[in-house]
Specification:
This protein is α/β, with parallel strands linked by helices. It folds into three domains: about 90 residues, NAD(P)-binding Rossmann-like Domain (Rossmann fold, 3-Layer(aba) Sandwich); about 220 residues, UDP-N-acetylmuramoyl-L-alanine:D-glutamate ligase (3-Layer(aba) Sandwich); about 140 residues, Mur ligase, C-terminal domain (Protein-Tyrosine Phosphatase, Chain A). The protein contains 15 helices and 22 strands. The strands form four sheets. Strands 7-8-6-9-10-11-12-13-14 form a nine-stranded mixed sheet, with helices on both faces. The protein has a six-stranded mixed sheet with strand order 15-16-21-17-19-20, with helices on both faces. The radius of gyration is 23 Å and the shape is globular. The termini are far apart.
Length: about 475
């Protein structure tokens, strides 16, 4: 655990007691702060009391003494309207920050102080989890003691304290950027930008500006690696390249760059200094299928190159990457039928990446719809044999798919897996795929995308066990 010592002897409010909130309480408590906490969930309140917090509704907190509010990233800061606790904090003159800001102040308390625990920060709409995990894997494989966390895996304050050689690799969401004005990455990565979380940022322009802010906060001596294949990210790169020049590294898939990192014709190339050299054949990265994963791979290469320096060592580490759960993950196979868990695909852009990887798809989609719907996915209609729609979005998705893809509103994931497997088994296709790639948030029927993905894994595994039992 990283102990937050900056608030010793001070009163701090912590609102929202999920993983990061409880982690913040433990860190602050160890650092000597007096903590006032609240969450709507009784179980979370019990855990906060056990950690030593004074638990009470925020309206009863001693706001005259509280000068800092640590807010859960899931609580609205600005849109669609500030939460009442944010208004109370502002009225009291208290700053509103998150656990990442606590981490930043402990790891690097002075903006100009060099040589303190390097931070690689990754953001973007899609691909940031895989890119973050891959960066961490490469660094560890090459002998660097990397700690991976943030919006993936462990909350940042649950990571081990620095030991003199530690490198922190953090996935940072737009919500976390809003609450971490003092985070100064040494290397920052922007994967891509497409409309997402607009209800929390008000507009796409606001959302893109938050993503850009993380790169703008990067150390003056640091590098920024940016995927330039979408207009929003390309615009951010153009602006930052004017200021950072060679410290802004463009990354592209399918386009040869005069300078940067790119992938074409099944290979990764490094043209960092203007002359392209082949790094590796992408076929070696067996757990990173599809063009979207090639982008993740190329961005990870660009992020670690200043640290590792040896392209052959980086390529070898990339080839050994085992992949991430819930991201185009094969979880079972019954005969010719493959079950692919892509539960992390919570918007259309993410689902497109999985749909582009397969043919003869029996597609499970739906949940709580995101802005923009799934109209953009109709280009993949020739690959989809049938769609099995679940959750709140099912009627809307059925209207979109009508006349393009056969679909059925099956209600639940259990019904969807059973129906998709039955149809795939009878299809006669050489390699049919039952694909969970929902293009939706999970919160109408599940706790989160991981809960949804684990349920799919269990259902698929049950079919595989039954088939094996019948065969024996």
């Amino acid at each position: 655990m990283i102990v937050s010592r900056a608030f010793a002897g001070l009163d701090v409010g912590v609102f929202g007691l999920a993983r990061s909130g409880l982690s913040a309480i433990a860190s602050l408590q160890s650092g000597g702060a007096r903590i006032h906490a609240w969450d709507e969930g009784e179980e979370a309140r019990v855990q906060a009391r056990e950690l030593g917090a004074a638990v009470a509704p925020f309206a009863s907190w001693p706001w005259e003494r509280i000068k800092t509010l640590v807010l859960s990233p899931g609580i609205p800061l600005t849109h669609p309207a500030p939460h009442d606790v944010v208004i109370a904090a502002r009225n009291a003159g208290a700053e509103v920050i998150g656990d990442v800001e606590l981490f930043a102040r402990e790891i690097r308390p002075e903006r100009a102080q060099p040589g303190r625990a390097p931070v690689v920060a990754v953001t973007g709409t899609n691909g940031k989890s895989t890119t973050t995990a891959l960066i961490g894997h490469i660094l560890v494989s090459c002998g660097f003691p990397a700690q991976v966390g943030g919006n993936i895996g462990k909350p940042v304050l649950d990571l081990a304290p620095p030991n003199g050689r530690t490198i922190y690799v953090l996935e940072i969401s737009s919500y976390q950027i809003d609450l971490a004005p003092g985070l100064i990455p040494d290397i920052a990565v922007l994967t891509n930008i497409s409309p997402d979380h607009l209800e929390r940022h008000g507009s796409f322009a606001n959302y893109a500006a938050v993503k850009a802010r993380l790169l703008e906060q990067t150390s003056a001596e640091g590098d920024v690696a940016i995927g330039v294949d979408d207009p929003g990210s390309a615009s951010i790169y153009s602006r930052l390249a004017l200021a950072r020049r060679e410290q802004a590294i463009p990354v592209s898939i399918g386009k040869i760059l005069g300078r940067g990192v790119f992938a074409v014709d099944g290979a990764l190339y490094d043209a960092w200094n203007g002359r392209a050299s082949k790094v590796m054949d992408l076929a070696r990265a067996t757990h990173l299928p599809g063009a979207h994963n090639w982008q993740n791979l190329a961005l990870a290469y660009a992020a670690v190159k200043p640290i590792v320096q040896d392209p052959r060592a980086i390529a070898s580490a990339i080839a050994s990457f085992p992949g991430l759960a819930h991201r185009i993950e094969e979880v079972a196979r019954v005969g010719a039928v493959r079950f692919i868990n892509d539960s992390k695909a919570t918007n259309a852009d993410a689902a497109a990446r999985a749909l582009a990887c397969f043919n003869d798809i029996f597609w499970i989609a739906g949940g709580r719809a995101k802005a923009g719907g799934i109209g953009s996915l109709l280009t993949y209609a020739p690959r989809i044999r049938k769609a099995y729609l679940i959750g709140e979005a099912a009627p809307e998705f059925a209207r979109t798919l009508r006349a393009h893809v056969p679909s059925e509103d099956v209600g639940t994931l259990e019904n969807a897996v059973a129906a998709a497997f039955a149809d795939a088994s009878r299809s006669g296709a050489p390699s049919p795929v039952v694909l969970l790639s929902p293009a939706c948030a999970s919160f109408d029927q599940f706790k989160d995308f991981e809960d949804r993905g684990e349920r799919f894994r269990m259902l698929a595994t049950d079919f595989a066990r039954f088939a094996q039992k019948e065969a024996s």
